[in-house]
Amino acid sequence: MRAPTLHKQQVINNAAKNRTPRLVPTNHGASFRDNGWYDSSEGLPDLDLLLGQTLRQIEHTHTSRERHPRSFDTLWNKVCKRLEKQGNATAYAHWKTSEDVVKNRSDIRALDAQWAAAWMSDVVTLGEGDEARVVYRNADDFDAIQAKRVALKPKIKVTTDDTLEIAIAYWIEAKNARDAGDDLRVLHALVRCHLYVGMTLSAKTESESKSDAGKRQGKVARDAMATTVLDVLRNLDIDKKMKDPDYLWGQVAEVIAKDPRYASTLKAYEAQVTTAKKVVNSTTDRLADTAQKWATKSKTPYPDIAAQYRCITAQIEQQARLKAKKVKRQAHG
How far is residue 254's CA from residue 263's CA, in Å, rounded to a whole number? Predict the structure, then answer.
């Protein structure tokens, strides 16, 4: 028997790809009270109840996963503001997945612009008609930019709320369709909405589990270091140089690094913050930066450090005022 020709083989392959998957008979189950979900019973769910149940599911997911501190109302208003700009849920989903969650998108755009500029400036057509050919004036420059662009991969970080934003956008589109009497569009929009809600309903992801475990494990070391920073701040001799925050926090870090009493605390803290990280700057530089953030962030995890820092800056300002008055008195003899 001859082997099938390429054309026949292609037909066979296409038929295999397009065949309908196996089906088995199904029937309607017992009727249940309409709660807004499809449950294989005789009656179909009421669309208004379906919209209401979906909305409650979105809010419950946001609250139960607790992956972001913002309130549900804040998240909702954020989506509304952006949805007005994008125009519809599909455009919102495209923007969210292709731009917003890409953390290095500015680097990508800048390299794309360089790539395009190199292409436009370096291409030269030599000859005419059939003899024409394209050459590059600066082929090495273009190839170098192209290689950088290929090597630059998107850095994507997606949170539960990122996914819920898209679900909210589709829910709003579904509700608008319901109000307009377009029930078929309601169902299609809710299908997309539930797709994104479903992405958030899995058991806690491996990434979330590792993140939570890391936070619990590191909290003991961070709390101990915060207590040490506060202790050093309270016993620091205040002088005029400390009006410079870099100098102040550098002094705090130096004291901790040199005092044997804090050695075990510093060692445990360093082990926690440098695990699986590429460390470049020094221990004191990292500690000074972190301590400054604890003191100056609007939602600091250590308000006692922030309060002590304000107290020190007030003392420095008071000393500066007293010195200015003294100089003024001396000048007037």
Answer: 12
